Structure formats: structure tokens, C-alpha cells
Amino acid sequence: TWTSFLSHCPIEVSHMAVASGTVKIVKPRGEAASEFEKEISQAILELESSTDLKAQLRELFITGAKEYEFQGKRAIVVFVPVPQLRAFQRIQSRLVRELEKKFSGRHVVFLAQRRILRKPTRKSREKQPRPRSRTLTAVHDSILEDLVFPSEVVGKRTRIRLDGSRLIKVHLDKNQQTNLEHKLDTFSSVYKKLTGKEVTFEFPLYEP
User: Fold this and answer.
1) Is 80 exceeded by the pLDDT of residue 22?
2) pTM
């Protein structure tokens, strides 16, 4: 599962090679990029060289990309280093718009590639306390926040069904409804793919 992938995929910059001017992807621990990841990398490089995003993109790179298909629809998930997330988000609306033009018929989302640390046990050699940001719950919450950007999560409730399964109902900032409403199914599908959790999104008239 992708939760397992996130658990074992360290993304600290110190473990990465430095991106060159002709490559916009740097995989953790020097892993080889897939052909699809190279395609996304090339598309971002072309945006850097042919648009006014050059200054903003010059120092940025991605760490991975995956394409998923849900009920006949396709989505591209682009992973970026946690330290660069805010820089990507400053230009994300423009970047997503340009990439969705190039990869027609697919929604594009950007997520920071975070690492989940297992809960330490008595036999664990790790003596330092586990940072809260590296817990499963914190990483899943962060994925949710990344997915819906530039909207914000203003409320969240968990509904427990009769069969014991859980459904997370997420309320989003209504100011972004026009921009994001057509992507809510994609957000739900991507979140379930990455975390195994079911989620629905709503734009309430007021904050819960």
C-alpha cells in the first residue's frame, strides 16, 4: 500500500542528489525515475524555460509522480520535498493549470512526500521521541491539507457505519468552491488510495 511506501521512503534533502538544470526530479536515495516521472519532470522543465515561472521553478524539484485511474477518470499525483512545499504552493494554481493543459483529461495534485515513523517499542534502538509530524495520523492529516490546497479544512467529522467502517466528512472553505468542486471525487479517490481511508468533501455555508 502507499501507506507502506510512505513509511519506508525517506525524503530528507540530505539523502538526495542535487537537481541539475536539466532535470526536475530527484528521487530519494538516488533511485531511478520511471518513464512517467521523467515525462512530468520534462513538462515542468519546459514550463520553467518557456513561461514567467522561471524564477520560481529554478530551485524547485519533484521527488516522484504517479498516475491513478478511478472510475474511468485519471489523476496525476506529484510528490515534492517537504521543505519546498510552500514554494510550490505559491505557484501551484498556475502550475496545475499548465500541467492539466498538457496532460489533458487528468487532474493534477501536489503532495509533500512525508515519512511515517513507526511507534517506538521497548526493544527499539531509537531513543529519541518520535516527532508528532511523523506519526501516521499527522501524515494523513497533512496529505488531506495538501490535497485540497488552496482551500482549507475548516471542519472534520468521522461517521461510523453499522458495519464498523468509517467515513470522514471534511468541510472546506467555501471561498474555493468554484475552483475545486469539480475535483472533489478525485481528492476522495486519491486520499483513499494513499491512506486506505474513505473521505467525502463538502462546502458548508458556515464553519462547523
Assistant:
1) no
2) 0.81
